[in-house]
Amino acid sequence: MENNFLFASGDDIKNGLTTDIYFMRTLKILREKGFENVIVNAEFTPSSFPKNYKWSIFAGLREVLKLLEGKNINIYALPEGTIFQERDYYGYKTPVMRIEGPYSEFIIYETPILGFISFASGIATKAARIKKAAGEKLVLSFGARRNHPAVAPTISFYAYIGGVDAVSCIKGAELLGIKPTGTMPHSLMIIFKATLGDHTKAWIAFNEIVEKDVPRIVLIDTFWDETEEAIKAAELLKDKLWGVRLDTPGSRRGNFADIIREVRWKLKALGLDNVRIVVSGGLNEYSINELLRAGVDAFGVGSAIANAPLIDYAMDISAVKVKDKWKPIAKRGKLSGRKQVYRCDKCFIDIVRIESEGVPLCPVCRGKMRPLLTLVMKEGKIVNGAESPKRIRERVKDQVSRVDL
Questions:
Q1: What is the pLDDT of residues 194-206, one digit of tens each?
Q2: At the topology level of CATH, where does 10-122+309-400 sit?
Q3: Range(s) for CATH 3.20.140.10 in the chain?
Q4: 321-339 tens-digit pLDDT
Q5: Which among 38, 306, 305 has a CA at the least distance from the CA of 147?
Q6: φ, ψ (nearest 5 deg) of residue 331
């Protein structure tokens, strides 16, 4: 073990090595007692949302489908990137996905399935909240260093789906089909200062050496006052300078918004108001508003997205097939029966109903509602293939525009 990193491989996950042991024991009992082929309907619903969350984004379906491909099951799910509330219009918990098929086909995957959708939904939802707060300003995901490197590409993937405009993680950007985005670290200026006595030569070197299609954004809080560094950077790089970035630790920066206002004002006074201001360090959806008003053009967000609170889901059997007929049955506190979620696109409200009840009318506008849970896997085959990250991102963007934080 000392020669390996501590993470599970794809084969480990598919072989059930990341499951909770009691599922393996349950599978053994079912096989020994002749219940291996019992068909169930298992539903995934949110147990709770993080504090102050009014809505969440369903994400992680891509991994679920990849894990269960080839299994003799059907899966119905919300389209990836769908906004949903913890409870519907009448207060019932909202199912985001359900699996129909022999329980033995997927029993050992309950643990990783919940992990996939809980983690991905948490990342996508936090990214969407932050992008909602930032509005039309750029949001960059800088979170690769804030979590285990094995999941850094996952964070980038679902942060982008949630709405961030770019990611710094190289592998994450590769999976998304976009270019990675980033500026420069403080270490670059420190080395130039120590060896050449002038950290501003690092900015010149960056401009000389880095690919021409990379925006020239320089870090301006390494040694001098931020305003003085911003003006110096503009003098040295002239029209090549896209923007300046402030990444000063909270313990040193005082009133961050006031520092940004000063930088913005003095640049403008010198006719340099085309220089954009990028900020990073300890940002979240609550701190962005004041910085927006101070004049920030782009936000680099790390920890808030990479360590986003999970969306807590549970999987529960809600029906069992007995003699070719579905028998509604669920444990105490859960709702039995095979369900469908309906949405009124006009009023943007949802209703959960037993599938056999049919399509309801919207209780507000009396218009016809549409079903949200759609067939995404039939007898182990993925239906219609995976959607592109850009398409899912557009779905999120459209829905987020209709809700409040």
A1: 999 999 999 999 9
A2: nicotinate phosphoribosyltransferase (3.20.140)
A3: 10-122+309-400
A4: 999 999 999 999 999 999 9
A5: 306
A6: -70, 165
